[in-house]
Write a structure and sequence with these properties.
This protein is an alpha/beta fold and 555 residues long. The protein is built from 21 helices and 14 strands. A seven-stranded mixed sheet has the order 3-6-1-8-9-2-10. A four-stranded antiparallel sheet has the order 11-12-13-14, covered by helices on one side. It has a three-stranded antiparallel sheet with strand order 5-4-7. Strand 11 (526-529) and strand 12 form a beta hairpin.
Length: 555
């Protein structure tokens, strides 16, 4: 390989320092690959760290053991720096998930690892290697690599207002011909007042958001009126379902959505993992906390299920799984305030094997089990939390042990919900059904994450469809669902529940849906996982990893 010695023959032979200058040699190809990935928007490139690494490689050392030691040290440093420049999960995230990874089935792990291989990029890398080997016979590549790194450092001094990736159009939100029910203002004016999207301004905006959310809560009554009508609240919490997922498999127009009375078009789940999602919905009665705050004790008025329990709503828990994976059931107990005993599987039918090898029970079977148990229970009011992971990545057929396509599983789930709503109608019970997904499945993936990877709560993962149906209401259903188009999150759910507590909606001859949904709390689209924050600022999305600088989210 060409060593690209930069020393000139015209220099004095006694000048040993200049004699020891050498080029980057094979490391040129390393940086050319990075530049190509950066141009495609596939790297979270750190210009300064890479410039320091180049300085380390170029520093003149005499031939011998010092240079050999540097060459050996450079290999692990280069690998670590390359990983640091990717959007892959950080070391802390990997360590925190190691116990869950060991519980995954081997077949799922093998399938997941294969997704990291992009044969188009492998081919492009080979072509780049051949081109580099050919051109480097006559042209010294090192000066161009160094110049490019210096230029990248210069243009990033201003922060994320400079975008290193090619400009692309942002994804659009789902469109609808239904009327908007959401008056009020958003945080656009606040972000405009803070100025351009520098790291300092973005951090100030995020900090102000968290601080303002601490003062928000739903004001539940201390008791129900004497003429309150009993009804049940059923929250169906679906793992791995977003607008992006539904659209990618062509099921966004499934008939089950036409049965909803209210649909939130811009609901943000604020997380991309199941445990935090369950905690957030269980604490829906307060504003949105940071990810870290989820694992600390919250104000008692934040816990939605406790608020309802104090008003006579018996708490119930139903899952189509055991809750063992990721200590899900344990987190419900410790951080979500849900202490109810899970409903036994009974005669429910298992058709899938989950990603960790345990059987999954069909949603219609589990919901039917709940309905039958509810018919035998004389409690006037209940609030039930039903969690289903049928759509989770890696689920397989129990009969064949082969992967079941997401579209097939989503079709089954929607069909089950559709049939269950019909069963509820026939039962004569008064039930407020809320379909609130945990997060999306990352079915499509993007430049930051491959399909199925959810370490980063991207907008396509946290933008979830939320639907509400009043079953057993006297008033006839409207012809089209009322769409809430403003940015919303869990506080709007809690507020909507508080407005229906007396149950009189079920006995009215007509329902003023505009009045019911008027002035619901609005929440900007800000999402978090451990060490990662993704938020919208001045109609563009930015991301911060491990408290580093904010950068534009690559589209």
């Amino acid at each position: 390989m060409n060593n690209e010695k930069i020393s000139s023959q015209s220099l004095s032979p006694n000048n040993n320092l200049w004699k020891n200058w050498q080029g980057l040699s094979d490391w040129n190809y390393y940086f050319l690959i990075k530049f190509a990935l950066l141009w495609g928007g596939y790297l979270n490139f750190h210009p300064l760290e890479n410039l320091v690494f180049v300085a380390f490689l170029l520093f003149p050392l005499p031939a011998g053991w010092l240079r050999k030691i540097r060459n050996w040290i450079a290999i692990p440093v280069g690998i670590a720096l390359f990983y640091y420049d990717t959007w892959l999960p950080g070391i802390q995230s990997i360590i925190s998930l190691r116990s869950q990874a060991t519980a995954l089935s081997f077949d799922y792990m093998l399938e997941f690892v294969q997704r990291f291989i992009n044969w188009s990029w492998v081919g492009a890398g080979f072509a780049l290697l051949v081109g580099y080997l050919f051109i480097s016979q006559w042209v010294r590549i090192t000066p161009f690599v160094v110049a490019a790194l210096v230029w990248l450092n210069v243009i990033t001094i201003g922060g994320p207002s400079f975008n290193l990736m090619p400009a692309t159009a942002t994804t659009s939100t789902p469109s609808t011909n239904a009327a908007s029910a959401q008056p009020g203002t958003t945080d656009n004016q606040q972000s405009e007042d803070l100025g351009p999207p520098t790291s300092q301004n973005l951090t100030a905006y995020y900090d102000k958001f968290i601080q303002s959310q601490q003062n928000l809560y739903t004001d539940f009554p201390t008791s129900l009126p004497a003429d309150a009508q009993p009804f049940d609240l059923l929250i169906i919490n679906i793992c791995s379902l977003s607008w992006s997922d539904m659209q990618s498999v062509g099921l966004a127009e499934h008939p089950v959505w036409k049965k909803m009375n209210i649909i939130f078009d811009n609901f943000n789940s604020a997380t991309s993992y199941s445990g935090p999602a369950a905690i957030r919905i269980s604490r829906a009665s307060c504003g949105q906390p940071s990810h870290t705050a989820l694992y600390k004790t919250a104000d008692q008025r934040c816990y939605l299920f406790n608020d309802l329990a104090q008003l006579g709503f018996k708490n119930e828990l139903v899952m189509d799984h055991s809750g063992a994976f990721g200590d899900y059931l344990k987190e419900l107990r410790e951080y979500a305030g849900i202490q109810a005993t899970p409903l036994p599987f009974g005669n429910a039918k298992a058709e899938l094997t989950s990603f960790d090898g345990e059987p999954l029970y069909r949603d219609l079977s589990m919901l039917t089990e709940w309905l039958e148990a509810r018919q035998k229970d004389d409690s006037p009011r209940t609030v039930t939390f039903y969690n289903t992971i049928e759509l989770h990545d890696g689920n397989r057929s129990l009969a064949t042990n082969k992967p079941v396509e997401y579209k097939k599983r989503l079709q089954d789930l929607f069909d089950d919900l559709d049939s269950f709503l019909d069963e509820l109608d026939k039962s004569g019970r008064k039930v407020m059904v809320m379909v609130v997904p945990e997060h999306g499945a990352a079915l499509v993936g993007d430049k930051m994450q491959i399909s199925g990877l959810r370490d980063i709560p991207s907008p396509s993962i946290t933008h979830v469809p939320v639907g509400i149906r009043l079953v057993g209401a006297k008033a006839p259903a409207q012809q089209q669902a009322l769409h809430i188009t403003s940015p919303s999150s869990y506080l709007a759910i809690s507020e909507l529940v508080s407005r229906t507590l007396d149950g009189k909606l079920f006995t009215q001859d007509s329902i003023d849906w505009q009045k019911l949904t008027g002035n619901l709390p609005q929440t900007p689209a800000i999402s978090e996982t451990s060490g990662t924050v993704v938020m919208k600022y001045q109609d563009k999305t930015y991301i911060r990893l491990n408290n580093a600088d904010w950068v534009p989210y690559p589209q």
